[in-house]
Design goal:
The structure holds 2 protein chains of 2 kinds.
Chain A (H helix, E strand, L loop, with lengths): L13 E9 L2 E6 L3 E6 L13 E7 L2 E7 H4 L12 E7 L3 E7 L1 E9 L3 E2 L13 E7 L2 E6 L1 H10 L1
Chain B lengths: L6 H24 L4 H21 L2 H18 L7 H24 L8 H17 L1 H10 L18 H12 L3 E9 L6 H13 L2 E7 L2 H5 L6 E8 L3 H10 L3 E9 L14 H10 L6 H17 L14 H29 L5 H25 L1 E3 L1 H4 L2 H12 L3 E6 L4 E3 H22 L3 H6 L6 E10 L2 E8 L6 H10 L5 H5 L3 H6 L22 H10 L3 E7 L3 E9 L4 E9 L2 E6 L3 E8 L4 E3 L2 E6 L2 E7 H4 L11 E9 L2 E7 L1 E9 L13 E6 L5 E5 L1 H4 L1
Parallel strand pairs in B: 6-8, 13-22, 17-19
Antiparallel strand pairs in B: 1-3, 1-4, 2-3, 5-7, 8-9, 9-11, 10-11, 12-13, 12-20, 14-18, 15-16, 16-17, 18-19, 21-22
Helix pairs in contact in B: 1-2, 1-4, 1-12, 2-3, 2-11, 2-12, 3-4, 3-5, 4-5, 8-10, 13-14, 16-17, 17-22
The chains are: A mainly beta, B alpha+beta.
Chain lengths: 156, 697
């Protein structure tokens, strides 16, 4: 991009992330995938479904499958509280999918150079869904790779 | 000209014409002398050509044009119909269909010229012509009017009412009516001037009654290289022709004597005006007009039915009556709403009464049920659109396999949900191919078995309760269960000992296993083993099932059972622990209360003995991984479900009742779940899962 003098203007391309907490860690979700954030509602268990799916919910007349990130990352099971929220993600392939988070904190904007992409390469349950660490002041935020969270569904 | 907006109509109508041609050529093969059929074919081919031309699909136009030539010769009895010709015509139709597919995909006809086909057609045409050369020649000379309209010669004119009456008047006053088509040389610079000179020359002999294009357009040079005139004159034809030819830069003149009758069928309703001009030519005699009109009607009808493929958007053509019914119910719904509003008002005034409130709710219930039914009906289309391509397919197969066979269809008007109809084509086609290839024996074998040499395949559709049954029946050899058994042992699916105890039905079920083919050799018709299992899974995906009945030596029947509709079903709501589940009412046989003491054990499985049947018990709580119950009750509530001839008893904790439910998908993520095939939202907003009874067996 150039200004009126023809000089390059460095404009930081930032991406907005919704910061949520799961357990005692904070995670960032690319806001462009987020369709909606809703309160906890009645979950209907689906027998024989993949283990990380807790069930389905009724989102204004639509049936939306609900995924537990905790189960996905092998953490202890969710405890639903007043501040537990369901983040409804929307993707081309999977349609709507809800994920359960302990709390929704805030929305932050991070530029690419504020994200450390050199995360460890280990394939532990937890890190394979993370594609970077963002810095928000003193806090570190693990950026979740949404496509890998959802894509793996087919394989499982 | 931008014609893209007409593309949908074009595709729709072309589909219709192709279907009409397919059907009629089939009839023509059987009744080569049937003039009505030939005329209808001619009509359809002609419209096809006109439409392709209008849309600028030149290659398609060329092919249809050459086909039309052939039909023309058939009509004039210059060519005899034989199966060879029919084959060529069918491959032409396939080619046209291919064009259409390309048009659908790309809005362009593609670049396949189909030269070989055109060559074949023309060879045939020439072959036919040499068979009766003298006749042909005489015909061309004596009646140039019969010359191909679009290829060369006279292009017939359309006239309006005023001109028509002028022509009639002129003829009645004893004048000759002549039609001229004047061709101007390509390099002519002042076409309008030449045309003017022609007019001048002609006017010396008589009065020009009509121009095509209009005289204004001709003056403005808005015409190609030819234009037409209708002239009333007291003189002979030849001097006029000579006079026209005397004008320089005129390449030639086509002329003929005409009469007012030839201008009569102009009121024929036509979609594209460009085709109209040519259209009139095909109906030289007024006697043909009603037939032609009939043809239009037929093709319109089949066009209506033939909308089974998604074009740009998936559409359903709806009978206006169905919409009227819908509208009526919606107005009733509004009345019901208003009654409720007024009731709640009077409630506030403290004068409400519970009885009338209840009445209104019942009323509302009735309306919504009717509404549901009507909306469902709107989605219903006859299976005709799918099955009407089958006679052609069987004919082709019959020739390919050298086995004479006949397809008899009934119940084509049976209606099914649009979604089901869209997807039922492939499985049915497969079953028919299967019958043709494996079912029907060779003529020699049939003779030996004392059967008529021509095999019959019967496709029969009818409604049965909430299901539609489609039967594919053949009078062939039937399934050789011994051979299937051998094959199953060979494939290691069962041990020889196990095989001994298999029932007829269990053996036949092997045929539905993936990559289990009985064909001795692989043909391009069937035998690759990717067949019946796909049929089965396709049909089950639609919520239906397939069963087979076969008697060795006398034939096989495949019975396909499909639900009328997919979206909304009647279901029985049951409770397992504190979870609610829905079971489609269609698959429920009855509900029984069984004392625990009645449970018997067969091979360590729980069964119940009910009215002479042994029915396996399925504990839904275990199957659904519910929390185990603390105590076993003395009596079990058992829902007996059936799939085909199989029964099973589902043990539930409690019955809630019958309810109309809207089926919703669980979403892709949990779709691989076999037991649950959907979910529904209950009145209180809770989600209940639908148990797929088919998966239990």
């Amino acid at each position: 991009m150039k200004d009126e003098n023809g000089l390059d203007v460095v404009e930081k391309e930032t991406v907005q992330y919704i910061v949520v907490s799961i357990g005692n860690e904070q995670y960032g979700l690319d806001i462009s995938y987020v369709d909606n954030i809703v309160r906890m509602c009645k979950i209907t268990r689906v027998p024989k479904a993949p283990a990380h799916y807790i069930g389905v919910i009724n989102l204004r007349g639509e049936i939306v499958p609900l995924m537990s990130l905790r189960r996905k990352m092998n953490l202890e099971d969710d405890v639903f509280t007043d501040i537990t929220r369901i983040i409804i993600l929307k993707t081309e392939e999977q349609g709507l999918v809800g994920i359960v988070v302990d709390e929704v904190k805030e929305v932050i904007a991070l530029a690419e150079d504020e994200i450390d992409r050199n995360t460890q390469n280990s394939q532990s349950d937890k890190t394979q869904y993370i594609n970077g660490i963002g810095k928000n002041g003193d806090e570190l935020i693990s950026i979740l790779e949404i496509s890998s969270i959802l894509d793996e569904v087919d394989a499982s | 000209m931008d014609v893209s907006q007409y593309l949908d109509i074009f595709i729709d109508e072309t589909n219709g014409h192709i279907q009409a041609l397919n059907d009629n050529i089939m009839i023509l093969e059987k009744e080569p002398e049937n003039k009505d059929v030939i005329n209808e074919i001619f009509r359809a081919a002609h419209s096809l050509k006109g439409m392709a031309g209008t849309m600028g699909f030149k290659k398609m136009q060329r092919l249809t044009h050459d086909m039309e030539n052939v039909f023309q010769e058939i009509r004039n009895d210059n060519i005899k119909v034989n199966s060879n010709l029919i084959d060529i015509l069918f491959s032409c139709l396939d080619a046209i269909e291919e064009y259409l597919e390309t048009v659908k995909a790309t809005s362009d006809e593609g670049d396949n010229g189909n030269e070989a086909l055109i060559q074949q057609l023309n060879d045939y045409l020439n072959g036919g012509a040499t068979a009766a050369p003298a006749e042909e020649a005489v015909e061309t000379k004596a009646a140039p009017a019969k010359e191909e309209a679009a290829s060369d010669g006279l292009s017939h004119m359309e006239v309006d009412d005023v001109t028509y009456s002028k022509i009639k008047e002129a003829q009645e006053s004893g004048l000759h009516i002549y039609e001229f088509t004047v061709h101007i040389q390509k390099d002519c610079l002042l076409k309008a001037a030449r045309a003017f000179l022609v007019f001048k020359a002609v006017e010396d002999f008589g009065e020009i009654l009509a121009y095509n294009p209009s005289s204004q357009d001709i003056e403005d040079e808005k015409f190609d290289l030819d234009f037409s005139l209708v002239v009333a004159s007291s003189q002979e034809l030849q001097p006029i022709v000579d006079a026209i030819k005397a004008v320089s830069e005129i390449e030639g003149v086509d002329a003929k004597e005409s009469s007012h009758e030839e201008f009569m069928q102009e009121e024929e309703p036509e979609a594209a005006p460009e085709t109209k001009q040519e259209e009139t030519k095909t109906e030289g005699k007024p006697a043909e007009a009603p037939k032609a009109a009939k043809a239009t009607k037929t093709s319109a009808k089949s066009a209506k039915a033939n909308n089974n493929k998604p074009v740009t958007a998936r559409t359903v053509r709806v009978d206006i009556e169905k919409l009227d019914a819908l509208m009526n119910q919606v107005s009733e719904l509004i009345i019901a709403k208003n009654s409720l509003v007024s009731l709640s008002d009077s409630e506030q005034n403290g004068e409400g009464n519970n009885q009338s409130f209840h009445d209104q709710i019942e009323y509302l219930e009735r309306i919504t049920t009717n509404l549901h039914e009507s909306v469902m009906k709107v989605r219903m289309v006859p299976i005709e659109s799918v099955v009407n391509k089958f006679p052609r397919m069987i004919r082709d197969l019959s020739r390919k396999l050298n086995k004479p066979m006949e397809l008899y269809m009934s119940g084509e008007e049976t209606e099914l949900d649009r979604t089901v109809v869209d997807q039922i084509g492939d499985p049915l086609q497969h079953l028919l191919r299967n019958s043709a290839d494996h079912g029907i024996e060779s003529p020699e074998e049939r003779k030996k078995a004392g059967k008529p040499e021509t095999g019959s395949i019967i496709l029969n559709a009818f409604q049965e309760g909430n299901n539609v049954i489609i039967e594919v029946k053949d009078d062939g050899a039937g399934i050789d269960t011994e051979k299937v058994k051998e094959k199953a042992i060979e494939r290691g699916l069962v041990t020889p000992e196990q095989a001994e105890n298999l029932t007829q039905k269990e053996i036949i079920d092997f045929l539905f296993m993936p990559s289990f083919s009985m064909a001795k050799k692989i043909t391009d018709i069937s035998g690759r083993g990717v067949g019946l299992d796909v049929v089965k899974s396709n049909i089950e995906a639609l919520g239906g099932d397939v069963t087979v009945k076969s008697v060795k030596g006398t034939g096989t029947t495949f019975i396909v059972r499909l639900p009328l509709t997919l979206a909304i079903i009647q279901a029985l709501m049951v409770e397992v622990r504190d979870e609610k589940y829905a079971i489609a009412l269609g698959s429920i046989q009855n509900i029984e209360n069984i004392p625990v003491s009645d449970i018997k054990y067969v091979q360590a499985e729980e069964v119940i003995h009910l009215r002479g049947m042994v029915i396996p018990l399925i504990r839904l709580d275990q199957m659904l991984d519910s929390a185990p119950s603390e105590e076993e009750p003395d009596n079990l509530t058992v829902v007996i479900v059936r799939k085909g001839d199989n029964y099973a008893g589902l043990v539930v904790d409690d019955l809630i009742g019958q309810q109309e439910i809207v089926i919703k998908s669980l979403g892709k993520c949990i779709d691989n779940n076999k037991i649950i095939n959907g979910a529904t939202i209950l009145g209180d907003g809770e989600v209940a899962l639908i148990i797929d009874v088919n998966a239990i067996f």
